[in-house]
Amino acid sequence: MKKLLLLIVCFGFYTAAFSQILSDIDEVYPFHGDFAAIKKADQWAFIDKEGKKIINFRADLVLTNRLNSLNQTISYPVFNDGRCLIRKFIGDTYYYGFINEKGVEIIKPQFLNATNFSNGYAIVVLSSKDSIGFNYVLKKAVVSNVLEEYVIDTSGELVKYLYNPRKNVPANYKNGIPIIETMFIAPKLVAVKTKNKKWEIYQF
After folding, report:
1. How many structural domains does the chain have?
2. Looking at the domain assignment, is residue 188 inside a domain?
3. What local confidence, expressed as pLDDT, does residue 145 receive?
4. Dist CA 151 CA 50 (whole Å)
5. Cα angle: 176, vertex 177, 179; to 5 degrees
6. How many CB atoms lie within 10 A of CB 53?
7. Which listed residue, of 7, 93, 154, 184, carries a Cα 20 to 30 Å from 118's Cα?
């Protein structure tokens, strides 16, 4: 009887030590910082290093391409500087924003494209309208859609204008998102590709 009781107690400790935390997960990805992305169907969530789900499954997380140990490209959402990219379909266009590590929308989707944060900053694409004249027959202003790139901080504030507007672009982006033509080359240094395909370097 004592042996049976001891066996039951030991089995209880074993199952407690190796208890199942999550199940029915389709894909699990490596930790990036403090969190790992997991996938179920078409939705993504994040777990911490104890296996606890810290952000529930959702469909608006943006995937980032990374190389695995076999030099293969894999895509999954990541947190950088406490921010993760999201996107929402508004009208007929996807807009990009960011959530924090609690899943709260901290920078509302308003950008036509955005990079992940790096050293506290991200590059974003905004659309504006530039008046190029007036149509006296139709009695209305003639405007051109302009794409402009900026550096933002983790609160969403515009930190640096990147001096490379693209004019006369479509008013919507059903066929794809605008390409970001700027890249960080140091914590506060960006390289900007100009209209003549040359590069300019700015500090901010």
Report:
1. 1
2. yes
3. 75
4. 35
5. 120
6. 13
7. 93
Range of the domain at 130: 110-204
Q: What is the pTM of this model?
A: 0.80
Tell me the C-alpha distance between 100 and 80, whole Å: 10
Phi (first) and psi of residue 174, to 5 degrees: -65, -30
Residue 140 lies in a domain: yes
62 occurs within a structural domain: no
| Half-sphere exposure of residue 150: CA atoms within 13 angstroms, side-chain side | 17
Question: What are the pLDDT digits (tens) for 8-41?
Answer: 444 444 444 555 578 899 999 999 999 999 999 9
Strands (E), the chain: 27-32, 35-40, 43-47, 53-58, 64-67, 73-76, 84-90, 93-99, 105-111, 113-114, 121-135, 140-153, 158-161, 182-186, 189-193, 199-203
Q: Do residues 142 and 135 make contact, with C-beta atoms less than 8 angstroms apart?
A: yes
> Phi and psi for 27 in degrees, rounded to 5?
-145, 145
Cβ-based neighbours of 4, under 8 Å, separated by 6 or more: none
* Single-letter amino acid code for the residue at 90: I
CA distance 71 to 67: 5
Vertex 29: Cα angle to 94 and 34 (nearest 5) = 90
